[in-house]
């Protein structure tokens, strides 16, 4: 793929032109990424001791479901988030969150290292010291995203 950037003070607005032989999944991902980029939230509302607080997605290690409630893990603290897990996943997809299991989405940019278990699952260790398991079903996508530097959304 060839990328050409033309910076000139005479340009009034930023304009992106894509030239291709045919439509592809890669082009669809690029267009989706560009269209959704402005939608990524800079903060999430969470509840802590009956107070509503603001959480920065880049500081969240993972979000998980427990007893029909959704929680965000930030270091050794847990905060309740008043949304469904699939809503959090959709909201945070451009903040580098990916599905780890049926009940967990994690921030791949917060991963420090991981260990592969004999059953095909990954044990992911975050920079904060937290750890979470990635179901074998999601391991390939997580590894691909980590190899790409966490910048590319993969399904």
UniProtKB/TrEMBL annotation:
Name-wise, this protein is Putative HTH-type transcriptional regulator
What are the residue boundaries of the HTH LytTR-type domain, all occurrences included? 44-148
InterPro entries xrefs: LytR-like, LytTR_DNA-bd_dom
The Gene Ontology terms for molecular function here are: DNA binding; phosphorelay response regulator activity
Entries under PROSITE patterns matching the protein: HTH_LYTTR
Task: Cite a single Pfam family from the UniProt record.
Answer: LytTR
């Amino acid at each position: 793929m060839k990328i050409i950037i033309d910076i000139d003070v005479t340009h009034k607005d930023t304009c992106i032109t894509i030239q291709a032989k045919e439509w592809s999944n890669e082009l669809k991902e690029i267009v989706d990424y560009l269209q959704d980029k402005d939608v990524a939230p800079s903060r999430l509302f969470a509840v802590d001791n009956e107070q509503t607080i603001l959480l920065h997605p880049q500081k969240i290690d993972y979000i998980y479901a427990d007893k029909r409630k959704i929680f965000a893990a930030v270091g050794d603290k847990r905060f309740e988030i008043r949304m469904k897990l699939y809503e959090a996943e959709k909201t945070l997809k451009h903040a580098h969150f990916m599905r780890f299991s049926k009940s967990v989405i994690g921030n791949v940019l917060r991963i420090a290292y991981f260990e592969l278990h004999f059953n095909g699952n990954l044990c992911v260790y975050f920079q904060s010291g937290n750890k979470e398991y990635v179901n074998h079903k999601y391991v390939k996508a997580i590894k691909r995203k980590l190899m790409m530097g966490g910048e590319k959304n993969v399904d």
